[in-house]
Amino acid sequence: xxxxxxxxxxxxxxxxxxxxxxxxxxxxxxxxxxxxxxxxxxxxxxxxxxxxxxxxxxxxxxxxxxxxxxxxxxxxxxxxxxxxxxxxxxxxxxxxxxxxxxxxxxxxxxxxxxxxxxxxxxxxxxxxxxxxxxxxxxxxxxxxxxxxxxxxxxxxxxxxxxxxxxxxxxxxxxxxxxxxxxxxxxxxxx
Length: 190
Known about the structure:
- This protein is an all-alpha fold.
- It has helices spanning 2-33, 48-59, 61-74, 76-80, 84-107, 120-144, 152-183; strands at 37-39, 42-43.
């Protein structure tokens, strides 16, 4: 009983942490890269896409649920307009698509469930698969819901590029930070 309560609390905390990270980097991306916005909801550089990969790889389903909650928070004003279905499905696509892609890659044995075989080339391939799938799913949702001014054959490319570039920037940024942390001299070595 105590373990299930602890597991529930841990899952909730991871989900909320993921949501806060996603929302925070969404606003940071808007602050830094707003000049690269292609159209409403599509940017040529989208840092939060990096968290889609990172959070799903590290946290699994709680990370995906956090992405979904974060997307709903970002799109909260759409819930009050007549675009509630768009906001709802945007959250589902943004959060669950990366998790489903991860599950498919593991099921097809293209990826080790414990991520032990993860290397730079595989991470690049995953980034491109995640970016392509998420961009395609968003565009399909927008097409089905008849989003105004949508041109799926044109709009999918900036979204794909933005997700891929944002993910690569985040991954290399984390690698840079981890490399710097591991090369700092230890206080115990003196």
